[in-house]
């Protein structure tokens, strides 16, 4: 299978986004070192864009990922550092939606 892309929409419990992002960013180097990781980064709303933007909100961020294969993504999901990250952040997350996408 070719590259897969992931858009994860993460909503922190109110007031916890900064701390959650700090934990996310601390985990990024381990994710970048994974076999098959092409890109993995968090993004937030850009200020001052104007009325055509649909904001994701002050408690939310998105993770934009690209993986060399679905197998690489599936290995990422069960990597020890991801299990530790999930355990450390589970009480900070109010909602999470994950979209796994293929090139059209």
UniProtKB/TrEMBL annotation:
Pfam families: ABM (PF03992)
An example molecular function term from Gene Ontology annotations: monooxygenase activity
Name of the featured protein: Putative quinol monooxygenase YgiN
Organism: Pseudosulfitobacter pseudonitzschiae
Enzyme nomenclature, EC number: 1.-.-.-
Keyword Oxidoreductase assigned: yes
Keywords: Monooxygenase, Oxidoreductase
An annotated GO cellular component: cytosol
ABM domain location: 4-101
PROSITE patterns: ABM
